[in-house]
Task: structure prediction
Amino acid sequence: MNPRLLLGIVSAAALVALAAPRAKSNPKPASANPPPLAYTPRPANTLTFSKDVAPVLFQNCASCHRAGEVAPFALTSYADAAKRAKTIADVVEKRAMPPWKAAPGPAYVDECRLTDDQIGLIKQWTAEGAKEGNPADLPALPKFPDGWRNGEPDLVLEMPEPFTVPAEGRDIYQNFVIPTSFTEDKWLSAVEIHPGNRRVVHHVLVHLDVSGKARELDAKDPGPGYRTWGGVGFPSAGQIGGWAPGNVARRQPDGIGVNLPKNADIVLQVHYNLNGKPETDRTKVGLYFAKAPVDKRARLFPLASRINIPAGDADYRVTSSMPVPSDVTLRSVMPHMHLLGRDMRVFATLPDGTELPLVHVPDWDFNWQMGYAFKEPVKLPRGSKVTLEARYDNSAANPRNPNSPPKPVRWGEQTTDEMCLAYLNFTVDAESLTQGKTVPSITDYLRKAGEARKKKQDN
Ligand code: HEC
Result:
């Protein structure tokens, strides 16, 4: 397990990280007490930080809990851990930390969950006075890379000029257009984003524009970039990357690439938080070209459901499914809802009726949105079906409800609106670009199927 990649487990094509653990986690709706732990206590008073607890914290927490990272304090020394031992025991028992939201399911890349034994051990150590033990027993801290996580990019693009974020007002979605001017299509294996100013950059999405529309919007809007509220204002030719705190772009496996059409403009959409004083930002994007020949294109499909959540409804449920029109290999899935979302489950049904769980987030938290990449990519034959089921709580009793009293909530870009999406990242089995075998755009096919389905749902 490599927890530093925790949030970055969606491959470049599927990276749509939208929210950030910037503020403290939202108040948590009441949930049942944690189930009893499968833990055999160690002999009394033998557990020490150096020998027993540090290995757990260094492996599972220090990726975020160290200087310069997203968490508010470090957990890299005895002093760090000892003074908050009780809180640590509490958050690990509730499984609030590490922030891994998926229930156990198929094995995921970089899965970051403590075992019952590790949790029991931290609890016992805390209860017995959080002893240090012999510092000579301390394991080495894992090596955390600085700078570009994927190494020096092949090409670094940056916002054409710095953007000044005002001190006050409402959040800003600013879009910056960066021309690429390649004269031929390129294949990317990763897109890594370096936010210029972490105090105000909440999240970043990277879109492609081949229509020229983004440039027009930019020309019409004074100052750097152009403002939208949520959307990008043009028909995106694809989303190729994203960033939220803690998020690390991962390279596609050899043979799989994200297509960058010639002459495309890269449009960086940056969501800025305002923090009470003016700040400037100049965010960078690193492009990594595929080194090995690309045989298959990384594709992304948003499986969505219409939503129309009545005010006060504590248990609003929707289901949406789509047919799989040809043999595909699913590589990751990323659920997305806003503040009222409570639970999302995504599963596949094979042609013989077998159900394959893909992901289940039983306690949705807007602050921790992650993509889940399968250790073993999931083969879905033609005729399978992918289904999402989601549940929302729009009652006054939900402490995360942004409206008091509750209001009817529909689909929309603002955080206080809702969404219901699972981004599916896949490749098409019949495609072999190295052998000249192309496939009709399955994404278009699926989108049409999705639109037809939505129409039906609306009627
Ligand atoms: C992916 C990054 C990440 C990882 C991994 C992570 N944390 Fe955190 N942690 C955060 C952030 C960000 C916060 C502050 C926001 C919040 O509370 O959600 C936080 C907050 C905390 C808090 C304060 C909670 C409170 O209510 O005051 C504790 C204690 C904590 N983490 C312990 C741990 C422990 C122990 C681990 C490992 C077992 C761990 N964290 C792993 C990012 C992380």
Observations:
- The pocket of heme C is lined by residues 3, 6-7, 21, 24-25, 57, 60-61, 63-65, 70-72, 84, 87-88, 91-92, 97-99, 114, 246 (CB under 6 Å).
- The chain has three domains: 3-28+299-428, 49-137, 155-294.
- The two ends are 47 Å apart (CA to CA).
- Residues 1-26 have pLDDT under 50 and may be disordered.
